[in-house]
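Quarterly update from the structural biology core.
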Amino acid sequence: MKKNFLWSLLMALCAFGTGTAADYGMPPEIQQGNILHCFNWPITTVKAELPSIAAAGFGSVQLSPLQRPDIQVGYAWHDLYRPYDLAFKGSAGMGSEQDLRELCAEAATYGIKVIVDVVANHVDKTAGYHDTWWDANGRVRWNGGINYGDRYSITHGQLGDYGDVNSEDAGVIARGKAYVEFLKDCGVKGVRWDAAKHIGLPSEGCGFWSAVTSVPGVWHYGEILDAPGPSASIIKEYTSMMSVTDNKYSNGAARENGGLPYGYGGSWVVDYSVPDTKLVYWAESHDTYSNDEWSQNVDQSVIDRAYAAMACRNGATALYLARPTTKGFNNIKVGKGTDAYRGKAVTEVNKFRNVMVGRADWFENGGNACSITRENGGAVIVAKGSGHVSVANGGGYCPAGTYTDRVSGGTFTVTATTISGNVGSSGIAVIYNDGTQPDPDPDPDPDPVQGKLYILGNLPGNAGWSSTPGTGFEMTYADGKYTATGVTFTAAANETKCYFNLSDFVGSTWDALNASANRYGAPAESTAVSLGTAMPVTKYAANVSASGCKSWIVDPGAYNITVDLKAMTMTVTAATVEPQKPVYVYYDGNWTPSLYVYIDNNTNMTSWDATPAMTKDTNTGYYRYELPEKFRNSYVIFKNDSWQYPGANQTGLRVQGKSMIFHHGTYTWEEYKDVYTPTAVGEIVSASVSVSTRQGAVVVSGLEGETLVVAGIDGRLYYNGAVTGTAEVAVAPGIYVVSVAGHASRLLVR
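Predicted structure, tokenized:
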């Protein structure tokens, strides 16, 4: 089976119906790009602006609520947030159902997704007059104001004088789900939920979120301002079903620090371990501008700097407010806002984000300037003013060389540790190489980049050729070479040989991979592997077509593979494979879950309704399930009759040939390892060994074959093995025990 050919054919067929989408390089998923908030814009105005929005690199547009039929151009903005119904209500001011359908269809030709803001927590106090449905069965509650120190009051009290919707009512739940289904049918790809923290969770006896987020093919994010309640930890239950806003972190950059974030992430990331793929950032929101709050008096340039520092990240998406042309709570009306979104700096940041999909990011704050680097990609530099800056090349992610700033045209010099150059008047610089600039390192014999390298091919379960290439086999880098030990290839049905090639990037789709990855393969298609021989490797640069990277073929079996990207050679030898250890999925929690296991949309272990129950392991006290061999490279979802994690329409948790454990209390997913108890804790005494930390890692250098152990203070093992040279062990912030040759010490990772 020649997967490259098949995928090329598929993409060729799809291209006939995609219009101009490919011309703008929009990422395939909303979370992977940035969002333009077309605040108060009529639907037809958004449609007319699509060419400019696409040119500015926004992957999505967000519309204001469409739930009142009386809205006219010139109505106050806050009228849109006092709906008459939990349903679409066309109006002369905002547009008709046909307008919405035409917008979604036209947006799709640019690769732009449409998001609609939905108000589900409350209705206008006159809603019953306009729709008598609300007057029956207690669907609206009048419980008085909200006590923000009481979670029940937060979910059952009134926002202002609006009636609180009874979100626990079955009819309300059905109405909310029906609205989402209607929007999806119109072509809408995402929903923003206003006042989401005021609607209860499944653990609180409210089934609203479970129902509305169960509609497949729709992305969701909820407005969570400050904290969801006295116990902010319930944010993890929200993020099991949707992305959420982080307004404290977002607002701080523009409000308090001249456009620079204080650190990598806010409390959701630092204190509650919410993954950044579940976050929505902004520099300002429609509330901070239109409610006569702080941002209406902040210069647009400061807002743009704060936006740039957040919109270039790997996981979190960012929202850019198209500011109204006026100020004042009652002066801001329905109609088009300013064109600041078209600015050069904003545009180049968006394009940077789109090119860098899936590449790890690193944030460094130098006080008056910060840098956000993307692995094997480039950097965005944000300064409080213009002029010369020298900032850290975080993680060494930005390849060394000389770059041209895509915003100002200035020159930047990048080394392994620093990025230096002149920032223009915007305070924003964007540097990267996407093939339109000279290679930043013209050395014809460059040192290999110590980045990632993955094997794609006929791996167990067809993981490397599946519809989710993120399941490729990750190689190990050391001493200038990449190695993989005991890689097992399994021929596809009706095939006798196995195909494989290499990539320095994996993504959620083949489109994302081919757009961003450097591919490495054979000089000709179906080149047979010669065992024990250093065979030539051909580089196929980023934006290679699906059929452009040629594959090697090998007999089914287990192999050791070594790749030298300096010499551009690959050596394959037969591997002696020991009997495989069982691969278990563990569950640490109070529920009794079952387990849905899948590789891609077409390959699952059982149907959704027939998932196997996990059983409690008496030795560990955890629930566990042993994965069949075919599904050792797979994704899993924990579920029971009323709960699932990850939530509806979210990608499952990845298993890559090793036992994993899910901790329900903290919503963390990590490799399961036996615990470690050090024999003694003092100070590591060695003239050669150095122990230090950096953001998210323990670094130990000067090792000469000693056994290194890194463990948490709870005994959980993170690394155990002999090391020569330097070891860098990725860990979460916390206290760890580091042991070298029997000598141990404690240290704090911030």
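Residues 140 and 165 are 5 Å apart (CA to CA).
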